[in-house]
Design brief:
The protein is an alpha+beta fold. The chain has helices at about 1-5, 35-50, 85-90, 125-130, 150-180, 200, and strands at about 25-30, 60-65, 70-75, 80, 100, 105-110, 115-120, 140, 145, 210-215, 220-225. The strands form four sheets. A four-stranded antiparallel β-sheet has the order 1-3-2-9, with helices on both faces. The longest helix has 30 residues, at about 150-180. The radius of gyration is 59 Å and the shape is rod-shaped. The chain starts with a helix and ends in a 43-residue tail after the last strand.
């Protein structure tokens, strides 16, 4: 997992320089004991922004050397780095001096105590280096812009605009197609609503009931049901006659109630 997450140092691609290449207006090379390549890139970009300001004509490149990194910044030019030639020149058996032109002067790089030292020569010493016949290091490496040119954002905006135009065209075509298609759900007719069908069931009367009101095939139909018949009412029973207590015959114990009149005592017949 650590290998996968480890920062990969960008490779410096070698480029065949053209016959006439635009040299940088200003160049600077430095070595820092920085272990990580991204830290060296951050240092190079920070120096370029501090020296040249924010512009799209500033370039930078990074290359590992010894126990640190060499980094290079340019102002102007074709964006070709001197680092591949510098590393090759300083890594040889003789480890001689190398130089590059910058602002009409010579920038000399030499190894001392195992570490490269970069020094911008004076005009007089630069003239001596130019006249010595020793060639400068060729520019053959690819560099990166300090500030992006903004073209990726332009490409992304163009892609978004193209996508929006396509979506708009597809939606317009769909609208034209949908305008010709008959709607599956026709508009609602108020006269066909259930609460408007009262005239179909209001004449049911007392002899039939409405069992079901249904709508099918564009018509309302009523399913009738015969109402149950009511049972005839029975006449009220005549209440039994009530015999007054004064005329009631007394009941003799152990005997039946006499059917005739009760003789009065003390009165002879």
């Amino acid at each position: 997992m650590k290998r996968l997450l480890r920062f990969r140092r960008p490779k410096v691609e070698l480029i065949e320089p053209p016959a006439a290449v635009e040299p940088p207006a200003s160049a600077h090379v430095a070595w820092d004991p920085i272990r990580q390549g991204r830290d060296a890139q951050a240092a190079a970009r920070a120096y370029a922004l501090r020296k040249f300001g924010p512009n799209d004509r500033a370039w930078y490149a990074v290359r590992k050397f010894a126990d640190g990194h060499l980094w290079e910044v340019h102002q102007g030019g074709a964006g070709l780095s001197y680092l591949p030639g510098i590393v090759d020149g300083l890594s040889g058996a003789d480890q001689g001096k190398v130089w590059i032109p910058t602002e009409g002067r010579a920038l000399e790089i030499v190894v001392r105590n195992g570490r490269p030292i970069c020094a911008l020569l004076t005009e007089s010493r630069s003239a001596a280096v130019f006249a010595s016949g020793s060639p400068s290091v060729p520019a053959s490496g690819r560099m990166h812009r300090v500030l992006k040119s903004g073209m990726p954002a332009v490409y992304a905006g163009a892609a978004a605009l193209l996508g929006a135009v396509v979506v708009l065209a597809v939606s317009g075509m769909f609208w034209l197609y949908a305008a010709k298609v008959v709607s599956i759900n026709p508009p609602v007719q108020a006269d066909q609503l259930p609460h408007r069908q009262w005239n179909l069931v209001r004449e049911a009367g007392e002899t039939r009931w409405v069992q079901r009101l249904e709508y099918a095939n564009g018509r309302w139909t009523v399913l009738w049901r015969e109402a149950p018949r009511r049972q005839a009412s029975t006449p009220a029973e005549t209440p039994a006659a009530v015999v007054p207590a004064s005329t009631a015959e007394p009941v003799r114990p152990g005997g039946a109630v006499p059917s005739g009149p009760i003789p009065q005592q003390g009165v002879k017949p």
